[in-house]
Write a structure and sequence with these properties.
The complex is a heterodimer of chains A (447) and B (195). By secondary structure, chain A is an alpha+beta fold. Chain A is 40% helix and 23% strand. Chain B has helices at residues 3-12, 17-38, 42-59, 70-87, 111-128, 133-143, 149-156, 160-184. In chain B, helix 2 (17-38) runs antiparallel to helix 3. Classes of the chains: A alpha+beta (447), B mainly alpha (195). Chains A and B meet through helix 1, helix 2 and helix 3 of A and helix 2, helix 3, helix 5 and helix 8 of B.
Chain lengths: 447, 195
C-alpha cells in the first residue's frame, strides 16, 4: 500500500487519512503550506480529545475566584484610605456613604461563584444581585413585604417590612415590625419595631418599653446598639442589600465568600446565596427575596415571604404613620450620643482586619460572621481558607502586635524578657479567642 | 476571538475576571487537547491543565504584550514547562511515552464517532510515540495546541525553520509508520487504515 493507491475514502476526513492526504502531495513543501496545515488542524480539532465540560467550568470558576481575590486584596488596600476618608468626611457625605458600608457589612462575600441555571449559561452571584437590585419599586414608591418567621424552641412570628424610596428610587425609609411568640405566648424580648431613614433610626423594645433613638447624623448601626429587630432588619432588606452591594461593586469591591446554587424553596425556584451562616433566597424569575436563613442567639432562624400580603404601592398610597415608630406614649426614651468608641465600625477593628487578611476575606465579611455569633473566628476563617490552623491564625494576629512590642524593645521602653512574657500571654489569649466563641476581644458584637 | 479582542483581554485579564474568562474559554480546549496528548489519563490531564492555568493566572500581570502571537506562545511555554516538571520525579502524573497512552476518550456526541475518534487518536498516539521527543513536541503543539510554527519556535526556543523541518520530517515518518502499520494488519481490518 502506498499513498497514491490509498486515496481517501468518502469519510476520509478522519485524522490519519488527512495525514495521508497531506503527505501524499507531490511537493513536500506542502507540509509547510498554511492551507494544508490549517485543514489538517481543523479536521484534527474535530477529533481532538475534549475535556469534561463540568471540569472546564469548575476550573474556570476557581481561576476567576483567584483573580477576584487578588483584586479584592488590592481593593482592600484602597479601602483603608476610603475608610479614613469616610471618617473625616462631613456628615452629609457620610450619610450617603454609610449605606454602601452597610450593604457590604450585611452581604459581603464572594460573588464570583457561578452556577448553571436551566440554560447552559453560567449565572454569577453578581448577576443575581444585579437583577435583585433591579426589583426596586421605583421612585416615590414603597414595598410592603410580610415574612413568616420561625426558629427552634417553638418560636414563630411575622416580620412586617416597609421600604420607601425617594424621588430617585433610592431606598431611604424603612419600617420593620417584628412580632414573635414562643410556645404560643408573646415573646416581647424577640419582638419590636424599628424605623430608619437616612438621618436617624428609632427602635422600640416592648420588653423594656424603651425607645432607643439615634442622634442626628449617627445612623444605625454605628450608634453601637443592637436588638432582635435590628438584627432582622439586616436580614430582610435583602433586595436593597443587593442594590447597595451593586453600587459597592461598581466601586471595585469584589468580596469572595458566597456560595450559590439554584434550589426550590416552598415550591419556588430560587437562587440560594450562602454567606457564613446566612442564606438569602432570591426568586429566579422575579429576583424578589423569597426568604432567609440565619443564626440569632445561637438558634437557627428562618424567614419566608408570604406572597399573599406583599405588594408594591405608590408612596402616596402608603398608610399614614407607616414610617413612624408609633410607640406607647409612656415609653422611656434613650438617645444615643455619638462617641469615639460607638462610632467605630466592627470591621475597623485592627484585629478583624488582620484576621480577614489572613483568611482571604473582607473585614466586613469577617465582622458580619463574628456578629452572627455561631462560629469561632477559626471556623469562620476556614470557610475561605480551609487549610488555616489555629496556630497560623494566631501567628497572623500576633504579627502586628509583636511588631509594636519589638518597637518598644528597640526604644528601650520594654525589656526583651518582658516582651517574651507578654507574647506568651498574648498567644494564650489569642488561641482561646480564635478557637472559642466569637465576639470577645474582636471588636465585633453579638446580636 | 480576533487579535484585537485577544490583546484587549490579555491586557485586562489579570484584574478582570470577565476578560480572563474569555481568554480561558478560547484557549482551554487547545491546552487540554495538548496536555491530554502528552499524559496518560484524563484525570492526569485535568490536573496538569489546572496547574497550567493557575500558573497563567499567577503570572498574567507579568506578561507584556509584544506581538499578536506572543500570548499563545507564552501560554504554551508554561504548558510545556508544567509537563516537563511533571515528568521530573513526580511519581504520579509523570509524562508517559505516547505509546503507553491507553484510552484517549473523545467526547463526541455520537457514540460511533466517538469510538472512531478514540481509535484514531490511540493509533496516532502509538505512532507519535515512536518519533523523537522534539518531533513529538512540535507535532503535538502544532496539531493539538493549534500553534503556528512561529509560536512553536517561541515555545521550544528553536528557529522557525527548524520547527517546520521537525513537523515535516515527523509527518513523513508518521506517514510511513502509518502505512507500515496498515500493511501489517490483517486483510479484514485494513479498511480502517483508509479511514
Amino acid at each position: 500500500m502506498n499513498a497514491q493507491d490509498d486515496q481517501p475514502a468518502p469519510h476520509d476526513a478522519s485524522l490519519l487519512a488527512l495525514v495521508d492526504r497531506v503527505l501524499a502531495e507531490p511537493d513536500s513543501a506542502a507540509h509547510h503550506s498554511p492551507d494544508s496545515l490549517e485543514t489538517f488542524c481543523s479536521n484534527l480539532g474535530t477529533s481532538a480529545p475534549q475535556a469534561d465540560p463540568a471540569f472546564q467550568e469548575l476550573l474556570g470558576r476557581r481561576l476567576t475566584d483567584v483573580i477576584e481575590r487578588r483584586q479584592e486584596r488590592s481593593v482592600r488596600a484602597r479601602a483603608g484610605s476610603f475608610a479614613r476618608t469616610l471618617r473625616t468626611s462631613p456628615r452629609s457625605v457620610r450619610r450617603r456613604l454609610v449605606p454602601v458600608a452597610l450593604a457590604v457589612l450585611v452581604a459581603a462575600g464572594g460573588i464570583g461563584t457561578y452556577l448553571h441555571s436551566q440554560s447552559t449559561t453560567p449565572v454569577s452571584a453578581q448577576t443575581v444581585l444585579q437583577r435583585a437590585a433591579a426589583v426596586s419599586p421605583g421612585p416615590n414608591a414603597a414595598t410592603h413585604s410580610n415574612y413568616r418567621l420561625s426558629a427552634t424552641g417553638g418560636i414563630t412570628g411575622t416580620a412586617d417590612l416597609w421600604v420607601g424610596t425617594d424621588t430617585n428610587g433610592i431606598a431611604t425609609d424603612f419600617a420593620l415590625t417584628q412580632t414573635v411568640s414562643e410556645s404560643g405566648r408573646p415573646a416581647p424580648n424577640l419582638s419590636g419595631r424599628l424605623v430608619q431613614n437616612d438621618r436617624e433610626f428609632q427602635v422600640y423594645d416592648p420588653a423594656t418599653n424603651t425607645i432607643t433613638t439615634s442622634s442626628q447624623g449617627i445612623p444605625y448601626p454605628t450608634a453601637g446598639t443592637s436588638s432582635a429587630v435590628q438584627n432582622l432588619e439586616g436580614i430582610l432588606i435583602g433586595t436593597f442589600v443587593a442594590q447597595k452591594l451593586n453600587r459597592a461593586l461598581a466601586g471595585g469591591m469584589l468580596p469572595n465568600a458566597w456560595k450559590m446554587q439554584q434550589e426550590t424553596l416552598n415550591g419556588v425556584s430560587v437562587y440560594a446565596l450562602r454567606l457564613e451562616g446566612q442564606t438569602f433566597y432570591f426568586n429566579t424569575q422575579s429576583y424578589v427575596l423569597e426568604g432567609a436563613d440565619w443564626a440569632q442567639g445561637g438558634q437557627p432562624w428562618q424567614a419566608r415571604l408570604d406572597h399573599t400580603s406583599s405588594q408594591s404601592t405608590p408612596l402616596s398610597a402608603v398608610p399614614a404613620h407607616t414610617f413612624t415608630l408609633n410607640a406607647p406614649a409612656g415609653a422611656r426614651v434613650v438617645t444615643l450620643a455619638p462617641s469615639a468608641g460607638s462610632s467605630k465600625h466592627p470591621s475597623d477593628d485592627k484585629m478583624v482586619q488582620t484576621a480577614a487578611a489572613a483568611c482571604g476575606t473582607t473585614p466586613d465579611a469577617m465582622a458580619t460572621a463574628l456578629r452572627a455569633g455561631d462560629k469561632s473566628m477559626l471556623a469562620i476563617c476556614q470557610v475561605t481558607a480551609p487549610t488555616m490552623t489555629a496556630d497560623a491564625l494566631v501567628n497572623a494576629l500576633m504579627a502586628p502586635l509583636k511588631a509594636d512590642l519589638d518597637a518598644q524593645v528597640a526604644s528601650g521602653a520594654l525589656t526583651r524578657e518582658a516582651e517574651t512574657s507578654e507574647l506568651a500571654n498574648l498567644r494564650t489569649k489569642l488561641t482561646a479567642m480564635v478557637t472559642g466563641q466569637p465576639g470577645a476581644g474582636t471588636g465585633a458584637k453579638k446580636p | 476571538m480576533t487579535p484585537d479582542d485577544e490583546r484587549d483581554c490579555v491586557i485586562r485579564a489579570a484584574t478582570d475576571p470577565n476578560a480572563f474568562t474569555r481568554l480561558y474559554s478560547h484557549y482551554f480546549p487547545r491546552v487540554y487537547a495538548y496536555a491530554r496528548s502528552r499524559v496518560e489519563g484524563e484525570q492526569e490531564a485535568e490536573e496538569i491543565v489546572s496547574d497550567i492555568f493557575l500558573k497563567v493566572v499567577e503570572r498574567l500581570d507579568r506578561f507584556r504584550w509584544r506581538h499578536s502571537q506572543s500570548f499563545a506562545a507564552w501560554l504554551f511555554r508554561i504548558a510545556r514547562n508544567v509537563l516537563i516538571d511533571r515528568s521530573r520525579g513526580v511519581r504520579r502524573g509523570a509524562v508517559v511515552s505516547l505509546g503507553e497512552a491507553p484510552d484517549l476518550v473523545s467526547r463526541s456526541p455520537l457514540p460511533d464517532q466517538a469510538a472512531l475518534d478514540a481509535e484514531e487518536l490511540a493509533t496516532l498516539h502509538q505512532l507519535l510515540a515512536t518519533l523523537s521527543p522534539r518531533r513529538q513536541e512540535a507535532i503535538t503543539l502544532r496539531f493539538f495546541g493549534e500553534l503556528r510554527n512561529q509560536e512553536i519556535a517561541q515555545v521550544l526556543g528553536i528557529d522557525e525553520r527548524t520547527v517546520a523541518a521537525h513537523i515535516c520530517r515527523g509527518l513523513e515518518e508518521l506517514h510511513q509508520k502509518y502505512l507500515d502499520a496498515c500493511t501489517d494488519r490483517p486483510e479484514g481490518v485494513k479498511h480502517e487504515c483508509a479511514g
